[in-house]
Amino acid sequence: MNCPKCGTPHSNVTATRRAPHGVISRRRRCYNGHAFTTWEVLPTSVARRELERNHQAAKLASKTWRRDQAIIRDTRPSTQVALDHGITDTRVRQIRGAHRAKAAA
Fold first, then answer.
1. Is 38 left (phi over 0), alpha (psi -120 to 50) or beta?
2. Rounded to 5 degrees, what angle do the CA atoms 34, 35, 40 make?
3. What is the secondary structure of the chain as a DSSP string?
4. Cα(82)–Cα(99) distance, integer angstroms
5. What order of strands is seen across the sheet that includes strand 23-30?
């Protein structure tokens, strides 16, 4: 990327920020010390896929959080809870243990 002040073709990226809808801003500094910002726009299809991926990750995290809360509240033995949720009893004990550790701290 050429510096807009001196035209030097070499620069270093000092910061990168992602904005919604596929826009990336990069703060750069050329070798002569001039600072400038460049903007990159991702194609719509790439931006849409990225938004969808973030949405799916948030949905999964929410579902997992709700499952963990249900496991913590359930007073039955870990083997029965594990069968209901389709996970191992070791995982049930890990979830309950992590909750107890947070509560104790």
1. beta
2. 130
3. ---TTT--S-EEEEEEEEETTTEEEEEEEETTS-EEEEEEE--HHHHHHHHHHHHHHHHHHHHHHHHHHHHHH--S-HHHHHHHHTS-HHHHHHHHHHHHHHHH-
4. 16
5. 11-19, 23-30, 35-41
Q: CA 72 to CA 95: how far, in whole Å?
A: 7
Q: Is residue 27 within 8 Å of residue 37, measured between CB atoms?
A: yes
Q: What is the mean pLDDT of each run of 10 residues along the chain (105 residues)?
A: 89 89 88 92 76 86 92 94 94 93 84
Rounded Cα gap, residues 37 and 14, in angstroms: 10
